[in-house]
Please model this.
Amino acid sequence: MARLLHTVILVLLLSSAGQAQTTTTISIPQIPLTKLEQLQTTIGAPIVRSFTRIGDMSGSLAKGGGTVELQALELTNVSSGERQYGLAIEVSEGGKADRTSRSLIDYEEVNGLLDGIDYISKVDSKTVQFDSYRAEYSTRDYLRVSVFTNLSGREPSIAIVSGLNSCTVNFSINDLMKFREYVVMGKAKIEAAMKAK
Model:
């Protein structure tokens, strides 16, 4: 009986000690990674966002589906007159994941993205020493464009990945140049808008 009483007291003490503990969540503000994001998060001034949908691509159903949409955009701080131009690339996973993430690319980064796509498109089994490979280009706001082979080293695929949560849509290697063309079209739209201002 004394043993049972000691056990009950111990359980009560442990459960009350657990209730006394509190959890504090600290929210750390994210530092804007692009000029677009910095302007977009301005407080105390009207921000006008205008955009044009350039195009979208549907991912391979065999590889999970999903879509990638590219927009050219202009953000304007009405109070200061500051304008920023760039691309927004939204990656929406298909299937059960059903997640979406968007990466912003400043106009100044677009040429680097195009050069990166050009470089990774040339990587193949003849340019590497091993059976499988992954070549990728990343932007400041966590957009990654990858060309890769699986372990068997077969036909390469591409992946377009956005955000820290790595929303991913896979495509056949032939779709890489279609994505590049959308980037070129977006750049041309931005340059036309910049000349008009």
